[in-house]
């Protein structure tokens, strides 16, 4: 059970960093006078918000599966192994 708490901490760490960055970007965007910079700041904040959601979902999925994410490109197929053994 202790491993699960550690893994949940690893999910929350990048999410917290991204949320902190979003806060400061929105703070700077709200204080700027230039309309273009304000819109750009809001767009960057939305992009980082999507990254937060994606990071949390992928991390939670990996944690709920109890193993690493699948990497099908790295695994050899049985047919390839037979050809190599001939």
Question: Which bin fits the share of residues in helices?
Answer: over 70%
Total count of strands: 0
Radius of gyration in whole Å, from Cα?
Answer: 21 Å
Label the overall shape: elongated
| Structural class computed from helices and strand pairing | mainly alpha
Mean pLDDT: 78
Low-confidence stretches: none
Kindly report how far apart the N and C termini lie: 46 Å
Describe the main β-sheet briefly.
none
- Enumerate how many helices there are, as a single number: 3
Estimate what percentage of residues fall within beta strands.
under 5%
In sequence order, what are the helices and strands, one letter per element? HHH
Describe this structure as you would to a colleague:
This protein is mostly helical. The chain has a domain at 17-67. Helices cover 80% and strands 0% of the residues. The longest helix has 31 residues, at 35-65. The relative contact order is 0.11. The mean pLDDT is 78.
């Amino acid at each position: 059970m202790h491993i699960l708490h550690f893994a949940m901490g690893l999910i929350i760490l990048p999410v917290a960093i991204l949320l902190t960055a979003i806060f400061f970007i929105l703070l700077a965007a709200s204080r700027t006078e230039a309309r273009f910079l304000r819109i750009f700041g809001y767009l960057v904040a939305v992009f980082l918000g999507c990254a937060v959601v994606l990071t949390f979902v992928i991390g939670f999925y990996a944690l709920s599966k109890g193993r690493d994410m699948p990497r099908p490109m790295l695994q050899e197929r049985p047919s390839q192994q037979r050809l190599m053994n001939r």
